[in-house]
Amino acid sequence: MASSPRNPVRPSQGGQARAKVGAGGRRAGTLGRPPVMADVAQLAGVSHQTVSRVLNDHPNVRQDTREKVLDAIRQLAYRPNAAARALVTRRTHTLGVIGIDSPLYGPAMMLNGIERAAQHGYFVVIASLPALDRRSMLDTVDRFLGHSVEGIIVIAPQTSAVAALSHVPADLPLIAVGCETRAPLTSVAVDNADGAGRATRYLLSLGHETVHHVAGPASWLDARERVGGWRAALHGAGAREPDVVAGDWSARSGYEAGQELARMDDVTAVFCGNDTMALGLVRALTEHGRRVPDDVSVVGFDDVPEAGYFLPPLTTVRQDFGELGRQALGALVDRIAAGPGMGTHLKVTPELTLRASAAPPPGAARPRRGPRT
Amino acid sequence: MASSPRNPVRPSQGGQARAKVGAGGRRAGTLGRPPVMADVAQLAGVSHQTVSRVLNDHPNVRQDTREKVLDAIRQLAYRPNAAARALVTRRTHTLGVIGIDSPLYGPAMMLNGIERAAQHGYFVVIASLPALDRRSMLDTVDRFLGHSVEGIIVIAPQTSAVAALSHVPADLPLIAVGCETRAPLTSVAVDNADGAGRATRYLLSLGHETVHHVAGPASWLDARERVGGWRAALHGAGAREPDVVAGDWSARSGYEAGQELARMDDVTAVFCGNDTMALGLVRALTEHGRRVPDDVSVVGFDDVPEAGYFLPPLTTVRQDFGELGRQALGALVDRIAAGPGMGTHLKVTPELTLRASAAPPPGAARPRRGPRT
DNA sequence: TTTGATGATGTTATCGTTCACATTTTCGGC
DNA sequence: GCCGAAAATGTGAACGATAACATCATCAAA
């Protein structure tokens, strides 16, 4: 073997320099250091390139050679070095997810859905920010870029996040989840307006004259879209459009909304922006002697795990976070492969889950129309 | 400049081969490809090594040289290549977190706490497993190792997880969170027994004769430890030790437990394994005409965000997940730096949060002793 | 046989950093 | 103004994989 300019008998490799590393390193085996491709090649009696071919299952490798190599790999407990591989292939199989650091159910489940979808094929690096302002958003994008992620998914339910997104470099594969964004960006979101419409129309179909709404904070896009869907459904049915009662997603705000609504005798149906507020609302109504669903029907949004165990079990709008995650991942993979596009807006349709918290209004013999799902 | 064996005028680099990459690549700038250290060096009129020194703020660099280099970096929007760096330094600044794919509050917050603690200094790759069995656990460890994580934190609240942990290679820096493990492993956990003890002693101090307990599933270590702490506190006070009522963390199981306990007249105090079960329990008690806290006192565990808005606001044991994350990260960093040790078991002490769901038993004029925190 | 195509394998360059060491510059003391 | 130490900078050689190309074997058709 001619000594290449790179390997002049490999002087510093003779156990000294690397033994130090090996001492603290993983899987010492019979060598004093983690095995590399050359070790496998030597043991199998082939060249390192053949090992590489086996590893990337290249077709042109004889079966018995392949097996010799695989044996050597097992024997040495060899594992390819991700950094070396990434250096030459320019692929890291890693994507970053930027989320909001909040104990709310929706955002947490979106992260979960994305992570589950990515499990096979990508590593998911997460960053939860206390606030989705421009500064921390761009800092995080930068951090991720420094780590060579191939793309970024940002869970951006707040209006501030959308604003921040317009400042990221256009050539970065980025998908926004949970909000509809402006043109060049692709977004995936649950169709909140549709879900709110379904809930509202369902209540109307039970015979209620109108439906009141307890909304989430206006800084959240989901909250706004649900208000829009609710209002559109009322309008479409020619029903009276009551004022929105403002909440902040918390059970307390639902409770307070409930105290307010309980005083109004004509309230027979309430659509809540999320399940937690519905919980508080039901509490308040019950305290004021208004039974759910006999006197007042309540529908929530989210379908948290406890919703079925509320008293009464809560009829609510279920969001398919698994599907959301899959769509987001699919869009990101497409974007990585195909390069910048014009940006599409994907929607995941939610479903109404019927339980026991909604019924025809008091005095109504039977529903005016059959329930629509 | 003499043409080194490595850069013989760099033939394949003259715009063709790499221009292709540049077209789809990031930050084209004036070059047709992402800038590398050599580009910065050339623009700044120094060697690549000097650029490297500036980047790693090595002391022996003249101030004006440093500034020239930094200018060039800014001008080219240069960003060091993480893979190349990792290849030579053998450090990825990445750690893996294995968690359980469940909507439960505790595990979710542990992940959150770890991620927050790591934010500065480490990238966090996550994997949520549907079940913490040996197979999927080892697969995930392997996946992470293939990605060259420097260490792994596993959120292991279930007994099955602990069993699986004994099969990971001993030289892998690994910290278990949420469970106490066998000797060679280091673990960090909330002191569940202590928390349960505090809750129980508090109820006893209010004058209750004994305290009943609704426990989580026995497959969860937290559940077992809380049972242990509760029982020890009763024993220490010489109080009667009632049977455990079995639950499964869900509100429904709490509700069912409540129906059972409501029938027993001598029940005046209940310590619940978590807040969600407490919610169901209170519901059931109320339905059976037993007021909380006037007739029955209830204390939960977790301090979920809604706990303060329950009716009545729930007295509960708060776990400091931020501290837990910090401790876990600290332990992991120590372990990475110092190599295998004998394994320590760190405990984070929980705190009793007093609200309104616990009071002296009916008929008692005043507490026997002042409350202990 | 000889030939050409194709399959199987080996050789060398390359990715973009940091490390080890060599070289040049700077500067205080004589 | 010279000298030597220390500071500042430069020069190759790693790191461990894949890519590109070269070479050797094999085999069917001429």
Query: What fraction of residues of chain A sit in β-strands?
Result: 5-15%
Structural class based on helices, strands and sheet pairing of chain A: alpha/beta
Radius of gyration of chain A, CA atoms, in whole angstroms: 29 Å
Between the first and last Cα atoms of chain A, what is the distance in angstroms? 75 Å
CATH architecture of the largest domain in chain A: 3-Layer(aba) Sandwich
Shape of chain A: elongated
What does this structure look like?
The structure is a homodimer of 373-residue chains. Chain A has 373 residues and is α/β, with parallel strands linked by helices. Chain A folds into three domains: 19-80, Orthogonal Bundle (434 Repressor (Amino-terminal Domain)), CATH 1.10.260.40; 89-191 and 321-349, Response regulator (Rossmann fold), CATH 3.40.50; 192-319, Rossmann fold (3-Layer(aba) Sandwich). Chain A is built from 13 helices and twelve strands. In chain A, the strands form two sheets. A six-stranded parallel β-sheet of chain A has the order 2-1-3-4-5-11, with helices on both faces. In chain A, strands 7-6-8-9-10-12 form a six-stranded mixed β-sheet, with helices on both faces. In chain A, α2 (37-44) packs across α3, α6 crosses α13 and α7 (134-146) packs across α8 (159-165). In chain A, 49% of the residues are buried. Mean pLDDT of chain A is 87; it is low at 1-28 and 366-373. Chains A and B meet through α5, α6, β2, α7 and α11 of A and α5, α6, β2, α7 and α11 of B. Chain A binds a DNA duplex (30 and 30 nucleotides) through α3 and α5.
